[in-house]
């Protein structure tokens, strides 16, 4: 049920004591009522959790503002469009008992509160058909899932939808602790030589989508800048879009980074600096949560220095889950096809029980079932994802490879990866904000 609690009336002096006593009694009864907001077994579980939205009016009105606990910040959707939604990832399956929504002047006349386990299939928890703004408090709910969203279907004003705070209360069930979950955005083959003034230019759109998702960090899978990856081109194109979050980006180079007339990687290294060379090499590793991430340079897989480093890095790893990313995929159904240069690296990763490999190079989206380095489907295999739709001209699907489960060409977008302490999954999100594909949920080896 939704509670609308009016302000108390102005009291005459002669009635103050009696009526205040009545209000005190009512307040005491409300606090012990099981469905009443504020009950002891009703903790806030959404504060500071990753949030996304169908749109944002400006970058300063991001989805995360509705879950930061600050009543002065807010999320606002694009103006004049229905429907719109805002979603929070609670980090693990939770039982939801209460939702409190604090609307700005641009409120929803009609909306649904929905819950989902996978972020794709949604179950209604509550519905408002005649909203009047202010604060809506839905209590006595009984929903179970990892994700909760507010789905606005009718605006009350000509503007958009705007929330100061969206608070979700309940209990987190058994599973990975909420603090261990995080979101990553990844893409390859990004900045063509065009700008937002060109309506056909895609990388400004993928950058805007990536920024709206607001992940823990970003990964790029090479060919970040076209055509010759010169520093002047990085500054003219990539920097104007994906450069907005360079400090949160962990890049790797592609073959186009080697074409620079100033020398292989000259522009790449000048632009990214220590972001791309944190360990002084074009390959490196880092940890987040229970995950070990390995960033590799597939232009030099034939050189022993990187192979020796990779073996030592994996031997020293103490994290349960391992993800690696580079440019050239071992398996691909696109124009470039399979690239055997990556097979020795796959063998090393497979021996270390790695879980996930991300690649670019072919300009399409594709996911594969778990497989071994020889292409045999196996439950303990590596999952490979090709995510080369960051902005460069799409390539068609040419020869479908064994174990390929889904292929999308021609629709630009990014990978939105969800990691927990014991597993992962992802969605492929198009620049229109719509989910184009949802992966299975995988556990770490």
From TrEMBL:
PROSITE patterns linked to this entry: FA58C_3
Aminoacyl-tRNA synthetase as UniProt keyword: no
Record key words, sorted: Signal
Ranges for domain F5/8 type C: 32-171
Any Pfam family the entry gives: F5_F8_type_C
Gene3D superfamilies: 3.60.21.10, Galactose-binding domain-like
Domain of life: Bacteria
Official protein name in the record: F5/8 type C domain-containing protein
């Amino acid at each position: 049920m939704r509670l609308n609690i009016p302000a108390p009336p102005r009291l005459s002096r002669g009635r103050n004591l009696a009526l205040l006593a009545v209000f005190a009694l009512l307040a005491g009864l409300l606090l012990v009522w099981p469905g009443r907001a504020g009950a002891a077994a009703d903790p806030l579980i959404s504060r500071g959790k990753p949030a996304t939205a169908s749109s944002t009016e400006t970058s300063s009105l991001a989805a995360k503002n509705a879950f930061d606990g600050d009543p002065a910040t807010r999320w606002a959707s694009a103006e004049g469009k229905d429907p719109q939604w805002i979603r929070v990832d609670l980090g693990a399956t939770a039982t939801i008992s209460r939702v409190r929504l604090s609307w700005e002047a641009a409120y929803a006349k009609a909306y649904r509160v929905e819950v989902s386990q996978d972020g794709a299939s949604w179950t209604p928890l509550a519905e408002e058909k005649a909203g009047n703004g202010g604060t809506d408090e839905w209590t006595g709910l009984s929903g179970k899932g990892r994700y909760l969203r507010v789905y606005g279907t009718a605006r009350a004003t000509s503007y958009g939808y705007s929330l100061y705070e969206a608070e979700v209360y309940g209990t987190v069930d058994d599973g990975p602790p909420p603090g261990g979950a995080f979101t990553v955005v990844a893409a390859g083959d990004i900045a063509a030589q065009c700008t937002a003034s060109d309506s056909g230019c895609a990388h400004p759109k993928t950058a805007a989508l990536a920024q709206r998702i607001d992940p823990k960090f970003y990964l790029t899978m090479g060919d970040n800048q076209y055509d010759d990856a010169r520093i002047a081109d990085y500054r003219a194109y990539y920097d104007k879009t994906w450069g907005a979050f360079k400090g949160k980006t962990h890049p790797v180079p592609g073959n186009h980074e080697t074409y620079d007339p100033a020398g292989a990687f000259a522009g790449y290294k000048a632009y990214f600096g220590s972001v791309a060379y944190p360990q002084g090499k074009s390959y490196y590793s880092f940890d987040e949560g229970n995950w070990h991430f390995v960033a590799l340079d597939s232009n030099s897989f034939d050189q022993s220095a990187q192979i020796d480093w990779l073996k030592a890095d994996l031997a020293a790893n103490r994290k349960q889950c391992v993800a690696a990313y580079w440019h050239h995929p071992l398996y691909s159904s696109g124009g470039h096809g399979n690239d055997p240069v990556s097979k020795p690296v796959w063998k090393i990763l497979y021996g270390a029980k790695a879980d996930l490999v991300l690649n670019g190079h072919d300009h399409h989206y594709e996911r594969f079932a778990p497989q071994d380095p020889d292409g045999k489907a196996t439950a303990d295999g590596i999952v490979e994802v090709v995510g080369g739709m960051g902005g460069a001209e799409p390539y068609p699907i040419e020869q479908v490879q064994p174990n390929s489960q889904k292929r999308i060409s021609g629709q630009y977008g990014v990978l939105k990866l969800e990691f927990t302490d014991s597993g992962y999954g992802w969605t492929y999100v198009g620049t229109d904000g719509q989910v184009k594909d949802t992966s299975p949920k995988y556990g770490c080896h």
